[in-house]
Amino acid sequence: MILGLFKLLYLYWLLSCGFLQEYKCITGKRIDFFHSTKPQPHQFTILVRSIPVSAGSSVSESVERFFMEYHPSTYLSHMVVHRSSKLQSLIKDAKKLYKRITHLQSEPNQPQYRHVGFFRHRVDLVDHYGKKLEDIEENMRLERSEVSLATQEVRAAFVSFKSRYGAAVAFHMKQSINPTEWVTELAPEPNDVYWPFFSSSFMRRWLSKIVVIVACILLTILFLIPVLVVQGLTNLNQLEIWFPFLKSILTITFVSQVITGYLPSLILQLFLKIVPPIMEFLSSIQGYICHSDIEKSACNKVLWFTIWNIFFATVSIFLDPKHIPAKLASAVPAQASFFIAYVVTSGWTSTSSELFRIIPLIWSLIRKPFTCCSDEEFEVPSIPYHRDIPRILFFGLLGITYFFLAPLILPFLLVYLCLAYIIYRNQFLNVYAPKYETAGKFWPIVHNSMIFSLILMQAIAIGLFTLKKLPLASTLIFPLPVLTLLFNEYCRKRFLPNFIAYPAEVLIKRDREDRYDPKMAEFYDNLVAAYQDPALLPIQFSANSDSLYSPLISAAQPYLI
Amino acid sequence: MILGLFKLLYLYWLLSCGFLQEYKCITGKRIDFFHSTKPQPHQFTILVRSIPVSAGSSVSESVERFFMEYHPSTYLSHMVVHRSSKLQSLIKDAKKLYKRITHLQSEPNQPQYRHVGFFRHRVDLVDHYGKKLEDIEENMRLERSEVSLATQEVRAAFVSFKSRYGAAVAFHMKQSINPTEWVTELAPEPNDVYWPFFSSSFMRRWLSKIVVIVACILLTILFLIPVLVVQGLTNLNQLEIWFPFLKSILTITFVSQVITGYLPSLILQLFLKIVPPIMEFLSSIQGYICHSDIEKSACNKVLWFTIWNIFFATVSIFLDPKHIPAKLASAVPAQASFFIAYVVTSGWTSTSSELFRIIPLIWSLIRKPFTCCSDEEFEVPSIPYHRDIPRILFFGLLGITYFFLAPLILPFLLVYLCLAYIIYRNQFLNVYAPKYETAGKFWPIVHNSMIFSLILMQAIAIGLFTLKKLPLASTLIFPLPVLTLLFNEYCRKRFLPNFIAYPAEVLIKRDREDRYDPKMAEFYDNLVAAYQDPALLPIQFSANSDSLYSPLISAAQPYLI
């Protein structure tokens, strides 16, 4: 029987590693995707931060001088980032007001007047809001001209090059003797840029990163409190001790089944719902420049948070590095029924609710009577990767760790995965619109999580054999985690580099293809302005008070003027 | 008193970090050095390994095609590496024979004849060796023409560029879609290349690295055996139990003093003498391409070996991560007297013996009567960094960890450091000739070792306060290791990149300076052949048998033909 288990484990390992060769396929797809796209501004652009400015010159001049000096043949143009948070909030206010006005005008049976002020005189609301909007617009104009000044420049700039290879060379090379100056990174897509937070100094970004890491660790530790409560709920006796008055109710079979089976994971679920937004917020103040990086970082944070707080805390593992395998081996099998219930409550329901998007639906139903404008322009939502990827990966972890401890979980997981495949496929094709192209950037997270799951499973197997006093068996399993780590190291060297940046070969080929493309001249013209801060673009809501309908077109796409 | 100790610890930390700002100074010196050197072949060259070869074409053709395709404006030339180990051993034999012949001819009072063969007929030795030498030379010629063939090409090549920046770009960019092909690294100086070991495949190098790491760990663990014996020797009672017949001798005060004080560290010393060569050997099979990298890697290995086997093993710390600080705090102070003796025996004597280079002296005295040629050309030795740097750093570690536990060690260390400064200064200026320019490459090792020492010291302080039941004190010390780690992280980001590769700014400036240098044409001509394998250069020892003296000049500098 032991021998069979061995064969099973080694076979499973081989299969898993074979599956993880998917890395190769995804790398290939990534390269193909790069070859198939039209020229994109972000392929030609890098972001430069921590630009040193000598006294008496502006950031823009510094950038121009530096790149004309060191990259004269490839440098094309640059766009310095400005501090525009105040302007952004003004634009937000103006948009809100504008919506209110259009709403008032479109629905004539709504009250158009209101009593305002100390003397409660009647005021035409459209007129009133129109004036307010004009005030804000005046402020916006003033603020915009102020922001455009050199004094409001952030020491960061998007620098565009004539070729993809030129941009990649500037990105890969350390530019300055002081490596904390002229820090380069690949530019995101223009509409992926996260404008609000553009901390520029190296030290500040570094310190905020440390602060965020500490905050994440604290959050992970403090979160254990509700988890412990939930764990108490899974144990009926404990509950009877805590709430003696519930004794009579708890003896009813149905109630006790609900409490032990579904309630704990539902409560956990509610707590977990707030984690992805918190992690996204933490990632956003970490100094990332684009939504995709923020989501990627949040995805990692949520994943490790989930693994720690659901898996390890539920199986009650605390820091005692020596006995981890043995503890895992005794605690993990005991929690099998909890995790089966978890798959059903969390997995099945979450995918089903994903299909109907229940929470947004309820939210819009609640909000409808209170919002003034019902025909609000509808924005197609984008999928929150940092919410869904960690969940799926966590079920993957459950499947891998429990496949030999409690195979009963597997059919439930299989149902979940089939459901998830069908539903997410539908959602991707018909519901969500991508905010940015990931180009497979999230795959390394999936790979790492799978490797971690495999090693965890092998550690549990070693612990189990040790517990059952089969030292030979645990010795024979021992090469497995080592082999897994070596396999991971190989993948890291073989495939990961292509997920960080494209190689010279690909870039140069693509540049050559474009060389004789007549559209490139136009593309270069657009490239110069692609990374303009949208807040700095002229937007006008109230052309003048008597023709409020006219700027509707511009308001629907205010970013495209 | 506790408060005083705090201030002392924090002040010491500040001072240490201030001292480690030396990083900045050394970075500056490194850049200055780069600016002040003449154009060097290795600045314009990279080494490319794992070159993919399509069927029907040679490595040389592949390299030419690839770099003409992707780096047409900067590519200059290349030199494919050949398998020449057999040729190298032939050259070695030839040199030995040649030395013997010149020795015989220069000393006419030595026996010129010998009885050889079954019939013991007299043979003229010069004639005999001359014929042998001719045979070997004939073999060399055959072998050389064979090695030059495409079939003997290793899939590695030195690729030279027209500018330093061009070489750096090719080094920094991933070249191929498959990151395990066209692997680039900076070329070493031509005379620093380690020719014997040119493993070319990515997988083989990666596996040999893993094997070497495992071997190092094994060596470190197995080495504990002699250390434990030495530890037994430091304890007189233990010795009396083991060897009861020594009881009478051990009661003599002088003998017991010698045994407890000096003998243990002397024995340890003898064992430690063999470690640097072993580590150097292990590093050499790890796939490094130059002596400097091998020595750097060996330096690291020897350093961690020393710290583990002398410091940790002597204070008897074994794997129990939870109680390390407490264990350290109880064990480290107890070993103060051992380490004071260690400083005296190992430190003082090693520097003094360094001055007279006692071991090479004794070795040459022993060897002299047995070697045939006394007027052997004398090679100026180079300093074995991997032997001396770890030793000095270990004394630094002792000084930092014991400065508040047993300050008595400090004057001994001070004497050692003064001695070492004077002696090594003299050795560097007057005795050793550098085999290669380090350009400050060893500094990061020094920095890391200092940071480790600081953290170790702070861990011991925390452990000590915990042992003495002063939880507040240990809490107040707690920020120190965190601050030290942050400081290290800062240095790593701020200074380390300049030790890996020079930034674009520096390279481009240097390239521009050279642009109008009339000597550059000649330099480029030499660059093409700079990385020729010395074994493939024509060397001739015996012009013809009757004029054996004539090639003496060429033999003295056989590499320069």
Automatic annotation (TrEMBL), chains A, B:
InterPro entries: Csc1-like (IPR045122), CSC1/OSCA1-like_7TM (IPR003864), CSC1/OSCA1-like_cyt (IPR027815)
UniProt-listed Pfam families: PHM7_cyt, RSN1_7TM
Extent of the signal sequence: 1-17
Transmembrane segments: 210-229, 241-263, 270-289, 301-319, 392-424, 445-464, 470-487
Stretches assigned to coiled coil: 87-153
Highest taxon above the source species: Eukaryota
GO cellular component: plasma membrane
Keywords, ordered alphabetically: Calcium, Coiled coil, Ion channel, Ion transport, Membrane, Signal, Transmembrane, Transmembrane helix, Transport
Domain CSC1/OSCA1-like cytosolic: 43-196
CSC1/OSCA1-like 7TM region domain mapped to chain residues: 209-465
GO molecular function: calcium-activated cation channel activity
Protein name: CSC1-like protein
Organism: Gossypium australe
